Structures are given as C-alpha cells and as structure tokens.
Amino acid sequence: MLAVAEHRDRQAFAQIFDHFTPRLETYLQRLGLSRDEAEDIAQDVMTTVWVKSALFDPEKSSLVTWIYRIARNRRIDRARRARETLPLDNSDAALSVVDEEARPDAALSAGQEADALRGALVELPEEQRKLVQLSYFDGMSQSEIAAHAKLPLGTVKSRLRLAFNRLRLSLAARGVSESG
C-alpha cells in the first residue's frame, strides 16, 4: 500500500484491487446487498483506496481493517440515502396508521427487552462484553475485531460464541424469547 500512496504504483494497486474486490463483494452480499449493489460499493471502495491512499496509516490499522471500514461506511451511507429518498405512497400511509396503534405495547416491550439486554451484557466477563460491543454496536467483522483487539481470530470466535450463549441463557431467564 505504501507504493500506491507514495509512488502511485499502478501495479501494486492492481494487486490490492484483485485481492480485495471479490472479498468485498462477498462481504457486502453477506450483509444483505444484491450482487449489483455489492459490485457498485466494492468499486467505489477501491476508487477511494486509490484516491485516498495517502491517508492510510499502518500505525492505526491494518490495510484489511481500513478497506473493510470504508466498505462498511459506504454500505451505511447507501442505506441512509435509500431511507431518506423512499417516497410515501398510500399503502405506506395506511401501514403507518396501523403502526401508530400498535406502538404503545411495542414500545413498552422493546424497552423491557432493551433493559434485559443491558442487564445481560453487564453480567458478561469484560473480555466478552468488549468483543460483543465491537461486533454488534460498532459493526466490526470477526476479522476486524481480531486485528483491532490483537487477538487470534479463533479466540475472537470462541469468546463471541460463549458470549452469545450466555446472553441467550440470561435473556431466557429474564423472560425474553429469541423471536421477540
């Protein structure tokens, strides 16, 4: 990456592009994007990598983490734009009236579930709670977490699996079912 940043080395960039583009597309599709959307975002990410290569700092993160964070942010930006531009048609208006009627119970239930989740998270060992935070609240992949926490990927996977099993048991004990 330094060759790209310092010398605009097209061959070095081609290697980075060939390595990361298919992986980014797969990652984005696993996050629920269509193949076309994943290709668009992957192309956009790789363009950003070329244009902003001088901003990459190996002291702050690995190249993998930097590229995937750009991809994650592009996906979030696209989702936000899509929500902002969705037109409200008559069927949506009818649904919003039904939603308004259901909201008090749903809001109470959601609040109780959130309280139960907070309580369950507090009960987790610190090392597991931090990984859950990075995974679900910060949106990092397990590989990104491993790089960020300087832990082996297998350790991250094991700790997250243990954490989610503990959360599931704790939430069940608090009367919160998996379906809702």
Number of strands: 0
Q: Main β-sheet: number of strands, strand sense, barrel status?
A: none
Number of domains: 2
CATH architecture of the largest domain: Orthogonal Bundle
The H-level CATH homologous superfamily of the largest domain, spelled out, is RNA polymerase sigma factor, region 2, helix turn helix motif
Mean pLDDT figure: 78
Query: Segments where pLDDT lies below 50 for 5+ residues?
Result: 86-108
The total count of helices amounts to 8
Q: Classify the helix fraction into a percent range.
A: over 70%
Q: What is the alpha-carbon Rg in Å?
A: 21 Å
Description:
- With 180 residues, this protein is an all-alpha fold.
- It folds into 2 domains: 2-85, RNA polymerase sigma factor, region 2, helix turn helix motif (Rna Polymerase Sigma Factor, Chain: A, Orthogonal Bundle); 104-173, Winged helix-like DNA-binding domain superfamily/Winged helix DNA-binding domain (Arc Repressor Mutant, subunit A, Orthogonal Bundle).
- Helix content is 79%, strand content 0%.
- The chain is built from 8 helices and no strands.
- It has helices at 2-7, 10-30, 35-51, 63-85, 90-123, 126-137, 142-149, 153-173.
- The radius of gyration is 21 Å and the shape is elongated.
